[in-house]
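Protein modeling request. Please complete all fields; requests missing the sequence field cannot be processed.
Requester role: graduate student
Desired output: 3D structure, token encoding
Chains: 1
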Amino acid sequence: MSSIIGLEQALPYLRLYKQQVFVIKLGGGILSDEDALDQVVTQVALLHQLNIRIVLVHGGGPQATLMAERLGIPVKLVDGRRVTDLETLEVAKMVFNGKLNTEVLAKLNTLQVPSVGLSGIDSRLIRAVQRPVQKIRDKENGTEKIVDFGYVGDIQEVEPSLVLHLLRGSYVPVISTLADGGEGKVLNVNADTVAAELAIALEATKLLLLTQVAGVFENPEDTETVISQMNLSRLEEIRNSSAQGGMRVKLDACRTALEGGVSRAHIISGLEPDSLLAEIFTNEGSGTLIEES
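Delivered output (293 residues):
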């Protein structure tokens, strides 16, 4: 990106994306790696300087798990999604809205990026309903089990006016994934899902999910099989065959965003230097680009 050739290649994209909204989701694995977070925040600062309107959404699963373990609270995941009992919800409040949101804001401040920390509670940004008890089929053996996800929310509505107000003021909103469940109830919502629904509500041009892997793999056991580009039909094939756990959740989020009007969704590594810039400003990209057709 620093070479003249790189700048020439980036120029059409710079023109195309000026003033467009990008929703970028930071996975918990990135937040726990200070070097990775530093280089991602540096790239976000550059995008902001290029007049691309950035909204950051962050998870925090690994940090919540670590805190729960320190407090002696058991952690349970089903198909890549966290089961949230009352004790786990208290951990999520502390970790997501307190520790992690504050740390991301502090990093942005060091680069003079004006930013504001929010959760889905603020101005009822994310309204959700508590997920009902469900039957879940085990992909490995085909058996069904009854799962109570506890204080996990399914998004009912996104009210983007506060975020749009901040974007118009050239702020970068940094959003944790606690949601308003009504009547004073706080719910925990999957960060990939929040990012997808926010991207739709904000009429974003791109949804970018930053994770610890290079993209979507044809074969999850072989890191050389990254799929550079796919459509929704191919997404369904991968989702129902080789994708595992958390990657299925990410593919679902990408599908939701595309079907909701977002032009492009991306799954890329947040650990590789300049991966975000390469995905946005080069023809080759750095991870997996997903389009509707």
